[in-house]
Amino acid sequence: MERLYPYRKGLKFFREGFWVDLVWYTIIQSYFLKILIFDYIIQPINVHFDWSDYQFVKHWSVPAQVLFFLITHDFYIYWFHRFQHSNKFFWRTHEAHHSGKEVDFLEGSRSHVVEIIINQTIEFLPIIVLGADPAVLPIKALLDAVFGMFIHANINVKMGKWKYIFNSPELHLWHHANYQEVFHANFSTKFAFWDYLFGTAYFPGHKPGNERENWGLYYDYPKDYFLQHAFSVKRFDEKKLLRHKWFSWYYNLRPNILKKINHWMEDIEHYFLVENSTMNYRSIEHKNEEKPESHNHHSDLK
User: Fold this and answer.
1) Which DSSP symbol is given to 102?
2) Distance, CA of 263 to CA of 294 (rounded, Å)
3) What is the pTM of this model?
4) Packing angle, helices 136-152 and 62-84, rounded to 10
5) 8 Å CB contact between 190 and 162
6) Which pLDDT does position 237 carry in this prediction?
7) Burial 12-31 (b: 16+ CB within 10 A, else e)
8) Strands (E), the chain
9) How many Cβ atoms sit within 10 Å of the Cβ of residue 7?
10) Backbone region of residue 199 per phi and psi (left: phi > 0; alpha: psi in -120 to 50; beta: other values)
11) Which residue, 16, 60, 62, 195, is most buried by CB atoms nearer than 10 A?
12) What pLDDT, in 10s, does the model give residues 157-190?
């Protein structure tokens, strides 16, 4: 959809930060935080406390349970997200999410470790302790993933009147634009009506713009996964740190590895192209050698 109906034209699929978002945030961070959140936070809490008196959802139907947790969690996320934009400490746990200059479906995965621990603990703990059906957990997680990819996707989709109910790229992409008027607007995740209900909706009817300065943060932000987390604790200037050999080596390690991989891929591609050309040349040469003999044979018959 991003390739067919782009919101911002010209964005590459393998855009800046693609591999950091996919490998570090989406795969590695998600894997380890799943273990931490479920095995070392939610499970111990669930074991050490008796929630039987509060498990009022356990007899509801699965659709009713899913809808209940979708709405209540989205209400919480709206206010916590709004709080992050107004509090200096919690902004540092959220700014990584706004650091991308080329926003696409994968941008939603770029979230600080602390932010994920807080949000996913508050999201999934009630589902477990309130006695919800086991199916609710994967359904809720799936809907979260789908909505997260959808609202950040570089898709030029028009929701019409549905935009007052469900969040969409036309609303949320403005939230990732580098404009003062949207820094405190469009906080909703799944249901857009929170923004309209609490007066934080912003939809001017046009797009933010295609230039890099129209998107992301107004200040420089590290591109490396570990440096992004370090930057949230202590501000630093990457350019000044590059004067140190150890930092320069680390900073250029991943790009250098990617360059080598690209060179290897080019060499392999070149090898097969040359090999294929050689085989074609030999085949043509072989056919040319056969043609005179065939011609002589017919000449003899004549």
Assistant:
1) S
2) 46
3) 0.82
4) 50
5) no
6) 85
7) eeebebeebbeebbbeebee
8) none
9) 19
10) left
11) 195
12) 999 999 999 999 999 999 999 999 999 999 999 9
In 3D space, the residue among 230, 220, 279 whose CA is nearest the CA of residue 250 turns out to be: 230
Check: CB of residue 197 under 8 Å from CB of residue 77: no
Q: Tell me which DSSP letter residue 244 carries.
A: S
**Tell me, what amino acid is at 253?**
L
Report the C-alpha dihedral over residues 231, 180, 100, 204, rounded to 10 degrees. 160
Joined together, the tokens standing for residue 150 give 């959808």
Instruction: Return contacts of 48-55, CB within 8 angstroms, 24+ apart.
Output: 49/129, 51/129, 51/130, 51/131, 52/131, 54/129, 54/130, 55/129, 55/130, 55/131
Cα atoms in the 13 Å half-sphere on the side-chain side of 269: 6
- Reported as type and span, the H/E element at residue 124 is helix 113-129
Give CA torsion, residues 65, 67, 70, 75, to 10 deg: -110
User: Residue 286: exposed, middle, or buried by beta-carbon count in 10 A (0-12, 13-18, 19+)?
Assistant: exposed
Sign of CA dihedral 123, 217, 256, 15: positive
Alpha carbon distance, N-terminus to C-terminus of the chain: 66
Tokens matching residue 225: 């996964």
Find residue 215's DSSP bridge partners: 177
Report whether 82 contacts 152 (CB < 8 A): no
Q: Are residues 229 and 97 in contact, defined by beta-carbon separation less than 8 angstroms?
A: no
CA distance 214 to 286: 61
Which residue type sits at 44?
P
pLDDT for 282-297, tens place per residue? Answer: 666 666 666 555 454 4
For tokens 């320069």, the residue is 248
Q: Which long-range contacts (CB under 8 A, 24 or more apart) does 36-42 make?
A: 36/117, 37/116, 37/117, 37/120, 37/121, 37/124, 38/124, 41/117, 41/121, 41/125, 42/121, 42/124, 42/125, 42/128
